[in-house]
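Recap from last week: sequence in, structure out.
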Amino acid sequence: MDFTKLDGLIPAVVQDATSGEVLMVGFMNDEAWRITQAIGYVTFFSRTRNTLWTKGETSGNRLAVRQILVDCDEDTVLIKADREGDGNVCHTGERSCFYTDITPGRA
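Predicted structure tokens:
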């Protein structure tokens, strides 16, 4: 993976492995990338807290890795995951972080 483009980080898009719904986007550094592969649960690097965190470590709403796809430039990953816990991924309690529709004419 090419961690040189975004100050040592790569975007990680997380998609529901069954429905295909985009659940969230986070960032990984090299360590988060290695941990995700080693433990089979999505782990991110928090830019605001400057620390690693495994999704669901406090809420129980973990993301179990089913498939990892790397883009053609090797600087972004798409992770297909199964939702564990109550199934809500967003910290607001929503199923996905992408729940606000601002499409012109529909908002």
